[in-house]
Amino acid sequence: MANSIIRILSYVKPYWKPALLSILMLTLSVLAELQIPRLLQSIIDTGIPSKDLYLIGTTALLMVGLAFFDAGMAIGNTFLSVRAAQSFAADVRSAVFRRIQSFSFGNLDKFQTGQLIIRLTSDINIVQMMVMMGLRMFIRAPLMIIGSVVMMYSINSELAGITLLIMPLTLVLSGIFVWKGQPMFTQVQTKLDRLNSVLQENLSGVRVVKAFVRQKHEGERFAVANEALASQATKVNRFMMLLMPALFVLINLGVLSVLYFGGLQAIEGRFTVGEILAFSNYLLSSMFPLIFLSIMASQFSAAVASGNRIYEVLDSTPMVQNKPDAKPLDDITGRVAFEDVCFSYGGDCTEPVLNHVSFTVEPGQVVALLGATGSGKSTLIHLIPRFYDVNSGRITVDGVDIHDVTLESLRTHIGIALQEPVLFSGTIRDNIKYGKPDATEEEVIEAAKAAQAHEFIMGLPKGYDTEVGQRGAGLSGGQKQRISIARAILVKPKILILDDSTSSVDVETETLIQEALETVMRGRTSFIIAQRISSVLKADEILVLDRGRIAAEGNHKELMETSPIYREIYDSQLGGGIRL
What we know:
The protein is an alpha/beta fold. 63% of the residues lie in helices and 10% in strands. The strands form three sheets. It has a six-stranded mixed β-sheet, sandwiched between helices. It has a four-stranded antiparallel β-sheet with strand order 2-1-4-5, covered by helices on one side.
């Protein structure tokens, strides 16, 4: 159960010095605290009966000094434990983030965005709290318990033996609650995943919600997820709260035992009042840490659940990764070939999205992909940079299987403007330079002009220094697409992929972009997915996809003569126009 916690604690190793020092300070704090009941016993049994003010005064001053020393050590322990725990959490967060960055599209299809965010935030925070409390309470409690037991035996071994019968019962009770509580805390985090997903969907799609007047429906969806989380959290907390009354019953039994049996011994003259008081203090000093450990049992259960979820991400192997003997892909001409490629998102090709696809694109050619929604157009171009791996067949670039080259070197030769443009917070210049941070101002402007973005950028108050809001807030869909195209152009790739990247611009702007791209695509192998057939009329090769297969291929003139599907698409969009 706690295997994930043991594994994740390996991230504490780099901070062993502050962690060890915090433990040392905690040990000194406990040793100081354990001396106080004995000193109090000395005052009651020796100082007061003999009216020795010097003994009483010096002992009291020593108690005050030990209290200040105890406080100083506790403060130092807190400072160092917080430092070690925060550094630990930062490292785990970085490790999870790096793992997510290594994921292929297939991995990201498995984990929802909301789930990954919860693992990066809430789950890591829970484990971080356990580490911090571990360097404080989880270590202080055993030290205090052991020290108090030793001191009780030194005072009265017979009475200590009777009271210690309570401790195993306390440990067994706490263990039962930890064992039962861990699955319940896992359910809490799962419910939190669902709530976060609903919240994220609503925040990102708030315009759609308002446009369709679905606020009430979304409010009900959120209420269901919120109620499920609240119900599960209430259930687990109600269960864990049962632990406290049970423990206090055991503690009170211990105190009662001390008062009863200790009182009998005091009557017989074998036990002094000071010893009874010191023994009672040590009993409470041993039992209250058990209470704290029991309280922390819920924290430990939650940490185990969160640790499992964190390692679910860390243990996920990227579905697309470099082969052990992968070599860098050097300068290429841009010849791309699909050889009997079969692909399915399920991985077994029983229901293929692409079914035995074969074609070759020569260097510098422009290839257009047409077909109905779901025909496999976007999937096909996602296979070229290995966002997914083919199930069978192979894809080659300049005759080299893309599985035999490193992902980084392959993707440096490819420029992509995806169907849904994604912009990052920062300036417009930063977004255009995203794939080439060292690009000059002239290169940025040249790319923007080619994407027909320069004019609207210069019309903004700060031009290229205009800050882009989250996911491009403040820019229209067409403006975001043009910036995305400029970003793809700037890297000067040998292979250029435009996935329906002009769908949000008007026909006039699309025409201007296409004219500019004719120059940009010259000498580059280009793949274009477009909904408007007017965008692909001049392509060297047009592939018409139908249910994952290539239904027809050729240039515009050839397809008009040989492909009924192509003619149907053409007539539906340009039926009244002139056939080229």
